[in-house]
Design goal:
Layout lengths: L1 H5 L2 H76 L13 H21 L4
Keywords: Membrane, Transmembrane, Transmembrane helix
Length: about 120
């Protein structure tokens, strides 16, 4: 205090400026410390979010793969089941033309005849 009283007004202004600069430096260092700690928190949060997203992507890929395999298996079973059905179980059998039915009967009779011929006589 005594020093400030003895100083000229110009020097007193510099002392106030010095104190203000010290306060600004202290505040800026506090703000810097807060930002650094926030930066660490943000990095941890981002890493955790990336891990969660990665796990979710893996789960989605596995679920999609399982669904695709199940659908392919169901389609294959249906195709195989359709392949083993006879002509009478064919849903389009009623709509066959007369010539198609005659052709089918001829083929069946030829098959039956070839079976009889290929069997040895008893």
């Amino acid at each position: 205090m005594e020093r400030e009283k003895k100083l000229a007004p110009r020097h007193r202004h510099f002392t106030d400026l010095e104190a203000t600069l010290e306060r600004v430096l202290y505040c800026s260092s506090v703000i810097y410390d807060i930002l650094v700690s926030l930066n660490h928190i943000v990095v941890v949060v981002v890493v955790v979010l990336l891990l969660v997203v990665e796990v979710l992507v893996v789960v989605v890929v596995v679920v999609v793969a399982v669904v695709v395999v199940v659908v392919v298996a169901l389609v294959a079973v249906e195709v195989l089941a359709l392949g083993h059905r006879g002509a009478s179980q064919n849903p389009h059998h009623e709509y066959m033309s007369r010539s198609d039915r005659r052709f089918r009967r001829r083929c069946e009779s030829i098959r039956n005849l070839s079976k009889r011929v290929s069997q040895p006589p008893n």
